[in-house]
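Fill in residues.
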């Protein structure tokens, strides 16, 4: 049975959590393939709001959920999320990969210290220790995996790691001097042995479990964290996260072959946002940007930081289509653009008098690009009830200007938009089963 990937088509925060929750009804398993607690997914069910950083949003539907080996896991936060679900009457059917790497208390310390040292050059990380955890994974000698955390070799392993890191623990301020190392080690040892005990019942071979499910004809949804332009290889380097957020990350992270993936859904907001530093050609630094931020509640789920807001960028969506092999798009937060007119969509960049149709490789060049826009007429402000009514009736009930906006995107990216989200609730979602007008006419 085919695997489905849900991937962010912009800079993260596209509303993947809501789309995954919507699709999860019809699947058997949801697998998160990259990142750690830098991500934040919000799912609204009736009047309950669920916020996750690690556990895939499919848990709310009672589905089997997997934290794959491509992830980095802060055990304390994972246990808190498990407890959060339990308090709401959900016993998560969770598998935590033995291959996943563990974020330890010194990783956030290193993350923040490294950002501080960079000063003006900082990345604007979430400060959750994600970069240092992945760096240790790549270094291979100073890393702890979930398999180590739950084994009786943990004491030996962590002692070696802390010994190797002694100099850095002092330099970055995790401990004052070398006399504190024993105490620091004992605190970590006690706390993390306890976490290991608690997580033991969830650990497993994610790749085996997922492939067996696929072979049995089960539907598996792979959920990416962050977005295409934050991918460590394909994003606006160095202003990126440290994992593979692109669709290919589902294969490397979860240990499945590319031939198992048949549907790749790129989730895009109807406009663009970015949190943290890095180039953003369509950023609005004036009042329209503030308006979008306030209307869309554009504040980070993990850090609470205000998100930078701007117009939709077709070059970014076409880039996401290429590097992920997108088969379709899901468009979120269309309701937020209500009452704003005219609406602009970036269709090309101007770089020193040259017209660019493709998103450049070099971050320095992206910084110099000036967007070229097409303008579309907006539609009037609608209340929550009106949006719910529209969602109930389906695509045809959208204001004509909103349909024009959607179809303009379809034409320019040449992909069908199959899901449109017009509000945070499950019921505020339009699923488009037929091909849209733009496709039918083959424009
Ligand atoms: P890190 O992943 O904490 O190292 O942060 C690196 C960059 O990715 C920063 O610009 C963060 O703001 C950004 N980032 C990380 N996770 C997310 C996310 O889930 N949504 C949006 N941006 C993110």
């Amino acid at each position: 049975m085919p695997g489905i990937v849900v991937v962010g088509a912009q800079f993260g925060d596209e509303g993947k959590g809501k789309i995954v929750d919507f699709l999860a009804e019809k699947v058997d398993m949801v697998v998160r393939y990259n990142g750690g607690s830098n991500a934040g997914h919000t799912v609204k069910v009736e009047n309950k709001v669920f916020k996750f950083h690690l556990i895939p949003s499919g848990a709310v539907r009672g589905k089997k959920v997997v934290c794959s080996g491509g992830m980095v896991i802060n055990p304390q936060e994972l246990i808190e999320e498990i407890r959060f679900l339990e308090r709401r009457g959900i016993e998560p059917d969770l598998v935590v990969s033995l291959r996943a790497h563990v974020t330890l208390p010194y990783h956030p310390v290193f993350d923040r210290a490294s950002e501080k040292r960079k000063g003006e050059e900082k990345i604007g990380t979430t400060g959750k220790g994600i970069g240092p955890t992945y760096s240790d994974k790549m270094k291979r000698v100073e890393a702890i995996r979930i398999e180590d955390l739950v084994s009786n070799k943990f004491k030996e392993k962590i002692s070696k790691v802390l010994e190797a890191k002694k100099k850095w623990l002092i330099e970055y301020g995790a401990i004052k001097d070398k006399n504190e190392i024993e105490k620091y080690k004992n605190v970590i040892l006690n706390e993390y042995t306890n976490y290991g005990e608690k997580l033991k019942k969830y650990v497993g071979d994610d790749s085996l479990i997922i492939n067996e499910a696929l072979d049995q004809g089960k539907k598996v949804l792979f959920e990416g964290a962050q977005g295409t332009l934050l991918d460590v290889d394909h994003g606006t380097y160095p202003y990126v996260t440290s994992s593979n957020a692109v669709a290919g990350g589902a294969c490397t992270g979860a240990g499945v072959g590319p031939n198992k993936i048949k549907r790749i859904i790129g989730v895009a907001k109807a406009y663009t946002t970015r949190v943290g530093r890095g180039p953003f050609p369509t950023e609005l630094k004036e009042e329209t940007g503030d308006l979008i931020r306030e209307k869309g509640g554009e504040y980070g789920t993990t850090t609470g930081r205000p998100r930078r807001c701007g117009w939709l960028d077709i070059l970014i969506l076409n880039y996401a289509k290429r590097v992920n092999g997108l088969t379709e798009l899901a468009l979120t937060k269309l309701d937020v653009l209500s009452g704003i007119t005219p609406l602009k969509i970036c269709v090309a960049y101007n770089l020193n008098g040259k017209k660019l149709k493709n998103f450049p490789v070099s971050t320095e060049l992206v910084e110099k690009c000036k967007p070229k826009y097409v303008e579309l007429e907006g539609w009037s402000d609608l209340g929550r009830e009106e949006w719910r009514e529209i969602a109930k009736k389906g695509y045809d009930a959208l204001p004509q200007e909103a349909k024009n906006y959607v179809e303009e995107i379809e034409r320019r990216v040449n992909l069908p938009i199959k899901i449109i989200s017009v509000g945070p609730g499950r019921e505020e979602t339009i699923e488009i089963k037929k091909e849209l007008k733009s496709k039918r006419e083959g424009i």
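The pocket of inosinic acid is lined by residues 12-13, 38-40, 123-126, 128, 130-131, 225-226, 230, 239, 241-242, 275-276 (CB under 6 Å).
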